[in-house]
Amino acid sequence: MAMLELRGVSKSYADTPVLRSVDLSVEPGELMFLLGPSGCGKSTLLRIVAGLIRQDSGSIVLNGRDVSGLPPEARDTPMVFQNYALWPHLDVAGNIEFGLKLRKLPREEIAKTTREMLSVVGMTEFAKRKVNELSGGQQQRVALARALALRGSILLLDEPLSNLDARLRDLMRSEIRRICKERGLTALYVTHDRREALSVGDRIAVMKVGGILQLGTPRTLYRRPATKFAAAFLGDADFLDAKCLASDGDGAVFETAAGKLRVKLDDQPVKPEPNAPYTLMFHPEAVHVDAPETAPNAIPCVVRDEVFLGETTVLTLESSGVTLHASEGAAPERIPGASIFCAVPPDAFTILPPETR
Can you state the percent helix, strand and coil of the chain, rounding each to 5? Predict the structure, then answer.
């Protein structure tokens, strides 16, 4: 049985639809991510699950029970907010204890749970520290501990890392996944950060204009996006307009502005038909730079620019008037204007219908 089921959930403000009949199922112990740009409805959906907003239609089933009409305190859905929402007049331990006291639990159980949660998030030595004396990362840990202490059916997280610097976000991503997996927690997590979703999530629901555009594992979505929008949102991507010349079952040959390219057909979202137009997508890190001219799918390119990022260098390339990109690790310096061959392996392409956006 699914831990959470959303069935036809819709929401509008005035005459503007925010959610359009959303269906979603989250399994026990799963970290489900809602990923999408601002305004796509992901935070609204999370708040509807929490009971903070009432849907116009549809139902929310939690652990087999329809909770659609219940207030937040009756839903068993602790939430970690973007701004943490900690009580400034309480110390760290007091913030964790707060929800437990509202539930009128025995004093010994409150103290035991608080000690356990402080240990889980590595904040034991800060138990008596006021929250306004903590760093952003420490406050985030307290907010997480407070939610974990309530032992809800599902943990809701609304962009909890957006206020942290890049280095701390990387650390806390790993910590959140570790804590959830060690404790067997189910989580619904909202973010607009693709790295967060790809590195932490078990599955990702890519959202656009109030609906779920594509749902799948991080590897599947990254490697085989269904649309241009999903591909561009999940990572850097290049697109080539293409016409299918021939297909032999294992692969297909396409005519593009960069030349004829062969594409492997296993697990493609689209099976191409000869003479039909398509879009070929590939990621810059899949490109082999300085490939032999005889390599499969070798493309003659001119280096137009390079951006050094430390561990990688991103090249902007031009081939027959088309701009392409390549990402190299431990790369030598490339001189603008240099002519090179680059190759894209046949299995690195994803075939998309041309009308996708």
Answer: 30, 35, 35
End-to-end CA distance of the chain: 35
Q: What is the pLDDT of residues 31-59, one digit of tens each?
A: 999 999 989 999 999 999 999 999 999 99
Residue 267: strand, helix, or coil: coil
Bridge partner residues of 190 (DSSP): 34, 158
Superfamily of domain 236-352: Nucleic acid-binding proteins (2.40.50.140)
**Ordered alpha helix ranges (H), 150-208:** 166-182, 194-200
Compute the distance between CA of residue 357 and CA of residue 59 in angstroms, rounded to an integer.
30
The DSSP 8-state label assigned to residue 295 in this structure reads S
Q: Which residue, among 42, 47, 49, has the nearest Cα to 68 in the 3D structure?
A: 49
In DSSP terms, 191 is beta-bridged to 35
User: Rounded to whole angstroms, what are the CA distances from 44 to 40, 80, 223, 284?
Assistant: 9, 15, 28, 34
Q: With beta carbons less than 8 A apart as the criterion, state whether 186 and 199 touch.
A: no
What is the value of pTM for the model shown?
0.89
- Alpha carbon distances (Å) from 163 to 81, 96, 198: 11, 21, 19
269-293 pLDDT, tens per residue? 888 999 999 999 999 999 999 999 9
Domain boundaries of the chain, sorted by first residue = 4-232, 236-352
Q: How far apart are CA 7 and CA 4, in angstroms?
A: 10
> The sheet that has 65-66: what strands, in order across it?
16-26, 4-13, 57-62, 65-66
Report DSSP letters for 63-118, one per residue: TTEE-TTS-GGGS---EE-TT----TTSBHHHHHHHHHHHTT--HHHHHHHHHHHH
Identify the DSSP state of 332: P
φ and ψ at residue 254, rounded to 5 degrees: -120, 145
Cα–Cα dist 116/131, whole Å: 19
Annotation: CATH topology of 4-232? Rossmann fold (3.40.50)
CB count in 10 Å sphere of residue 60: 23
